[in-house]
Amino acid sequence: PEKKIIQLQHGAHRLGRRNDADMARWRAYGLGQFIHWGLYSIPAGEWNGKMYNGAAEWIRTWKEVSPQAYDSLIYRFNPTKFNPDSWAAVAKQMGVKYVTITTKHHDGFCLWPSKFTDFTVANSPYKKDIIGPLVKAYDKQGIDVILYFSVMDWHNPDWRYDIKTRDDSIAFNRFKQFTRNQLLELLTQYPSAKGLWFDGTWDKSWVKQAAFADSLETEMRKLHPGLIIGSRFRADEYGKRHFDSNGNLMGDYEQGWERKIPEKITDVHGNDWDCVMTIPENQWGYAKTWQGHIKTADELLEMLAKCVSLDGNFVLNFGPKPDGTLRAEELSLAKAIGDWMTVNKEAIYNGEYAGFIKQDWGYFIKSTASNKIYMLVFNIPVSGVLRVATPSHMAIRKAYGLDNAASNYTSEEIGSSTYFIHPNQQITPKKPFVIVLETGEEA
Ligand code: JFZ
Description:
- β15 (about 410-415) and β16 (about 420-425) form a beta hairpin.
- The two termini are about 45 Å apart.
- The chain is about 25% helix and about 20% strand.
- With about 450 residues, the chain is an alpha/beta fold.
- The strands form 4 sheets. The chain has a 7-stranded parallel sheet, with helices on both faces. Strands 10-11-12-17-14 form a 5-stranded antiparallel sheet. A 3-stranded antiparallel sheet has the order 13-16-15, with no helix packed on it.
- The protein has helices at about 20-30, 65-70, 85-95, 130-140, 165-190, 205, 210-225, 295-310, 330-345; strands at about 30-35, 45, 50, 100-105, 145-150, 195-200, 230, 275, 310-320, 350, 360-365, 375, 385-390, 395-400, 410-415, 420-425, 435-440.
- The protein is built from 9 helices and 17 strands.
- The protein has 2 domains: about 20-350, Alpha-Beta Barrel (TIM Barrel), CATH 3.20.20; about 355-440, Immunoglobulin-like (Sandwich), CATH 2.60.40.
- The relative contact order is 0.13.
- It binds 4-nitrophenyl 6-deoxy-alpha-L-galactopyranoside.
- The site of 4-nitrophenyl 6-deoxy-alpha-L-galactopyranoside (JFZ) has 8 residues, from loops.
């Protein structure tokens, strides 16, 4: 049956991927860092001696917490040990190519001295801008910065979940201008930022603003050529989010992969995407205690490999402490990931879907820089032999380890387009490892 195309005024602006240099740079990142920092890092999941069950950055919505008491945390925000250069050094060693930082989370507290509200760092005991020095420090390390921005703002009295009355509509019109002012302010004040990562856009009040959000998107892109915006910013005039009523992605990359990863390449519909991930099950802001399963470096590396093998970027979250330092667990995971990246980064940066059939031992990634195929091995079969089925007309010429010259491999053609990769010695790796395949046309 033929699919009827709906005429949309506020749907996708483009079909298919962007192919300019800014987007190519974003696509090549592979690994990113997320930072959730704000007033919620002070209670850190605990209020009057009781532990909050949800994510620490949502504690303001807990029935035990009065909004006034929460908002008074501004008078205690004083991260005297905040050193953006040391954060950037950790990120650099970890091998991240971009960072996404919460300029304003749902609580409305701004980490930059916004002119449009008093609820900012400028009125905390710390007084100073956080975002500016952070952007500068990461820029210096060659790490691109994306600004996270929550449209939903619990502090602003004009925020509405829905618009039901004339008063709601008047208040929300003010709120829309406030949002526009803040976004234009961020782009003007931090022009080296590469993009915006939107959140808090799911409520009816905002979903109904298709025309406003669309024109604001256009305005931001004009102010900041090359700007990268995810699919979580605006809805079309039928209220469809991420994908418009014709199924086309709105924005430059898909933002739906929050703590989950696609299984197969057809799940991503040829779009760019990034996956944002927490270390515990669901804590973005600093939480004093982490409950449940805490992901290991090897699990996180496997998620990274899987994302890049399916054309996505993997973004790992950090929740700094109220004094401005990073927690020990995060520092040690960053170090372990960085040590692995030092050896294996050429399999991650510029990596894309390789077009090979997935095998049980791990993930194939193709490098757009070298044209080589990388096998990222996480599970060695008891046979010790790794199977590879090449796309048609492709032959394997050479296989070798990325870690050091000592680990070498022989590729045996066992059938048409099918190979066994044999390690030349018994391998008992303690870490996931990478085998490089050099390929050519079949004879
Ligand atoms: C949002 C925030 O509420 C949360 O605090 C954190 O900042 C996270 C990165 O983003 O949480 C979401 C947003 C979207 C989905 C799930 C949780 N989603 O689309 O499934």
